[in-house]
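Checklist before submission:
- one chain only
- standard amino acids only
- sequence pasted in full

Submission:
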Amino acid sequence: MIRRMPHRFTVIALLLAGVLFLDPLGFFRPRRTVHRAGFDVARIEELSAELEVAGQAPDAYLLRMLDKHPVVFLGEFGRIREQVNFVHAFIPHMYEKGHVALGLSHVRAVDQEDIDQVLAAAQFDEEAARGLLFRRKVLWGYQEYLELLRSAWELNAGREEGEAPFRIIGLGARTDYSHVRSAADMEDASILRQVFPDGLPDEVIADAVLRHVADGGHGLLVYTGIESSFTRFVDWHYAAAVSLQSIGREGRAGNLVYQKLGDAVATVLLHSPWPDSGERGGLSYPLQGLLDAVYEQNPAPVAWSIERGPFSELPVTRGLYVEGGEDIRFGQMACGYIMLGPLANYRAVETIPDFITADNLSTAVAEFPGPTPPRASVSGLNNYIRSLAEDVEARLREFR
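Returned file contents:
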């Protein structure tokens, strides 16, 4: 049940899954330390004891999930170094166990032939790999995401004759932001259909995943944003946005795949800040900091199932994910959870030097996700990409 319609700008920002000029997470609001609730010591000890029994090494847990499910969504916050580096290090483990495909929302589905060429080349073509990131989103010039492509190429370069190649499956949507002249255009359904000619980003992700499965693929790890990774959990804000605009299928990418594949698909969330309009900074601790308090009892990377047991019944009482529904429990949000460390230890990704150049400046201006920035320059846009990472770093500092 939807309790309230979200603010119109929040609707559009969520619908577009990261149009930053609308500031949906309050990146430019005054800073302050994020509130962390106090918890009963006995409760923390109970959950810590459960984690000692049920917890597994993150890579081993994720491999078991891929063995059980043809499709596993892995939800990231975005621009957090430790999360991308975990996937980078996990790629060889996937391949060793026979899971030979990573779905990546940071490269486009329509660029699949180009992705395959980069991964099959005799030498790693960094310029071509950067181009794949650029075509997906002109502001996504971050080194750690480039290294995902390099890691896949290295596997293929070193494989024995006759071994299956490792593939990265492009999941990102094709966009055309040249139609956007003002923030008001983001509320115009006819313009949004031109911005997303192949469908909304979540639809494109879902369609690409389902094509891969239909072609016989299995053990696909789908690395995408947290909201797009939801399979059983309903993002009511997004559903309301799509219904309001009448421009696409209701449901995040994971929901759409789950509708087709059922329990063959699973969601695993990486420990991340949660969007929360109740915090001045727009972000809060998951479960108000309870998970971080439990982690501190045995501070080592850990993964575990949250479908059953005491963690599954923990109430979600605040934040954007609970604002549209009632009586939300942690176990409804995902099948599994991975803590690589406390939020206080996270850092932002590094920028790719000279991601915007004189050669691609005009495209970067035309495809800027929002109204065209006035007097855009090579240095100005590169500085802007860097500032977005610095903003994430500043947000993460609020958890220290």
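Reviewer check: The chain has one domain: 8-397.
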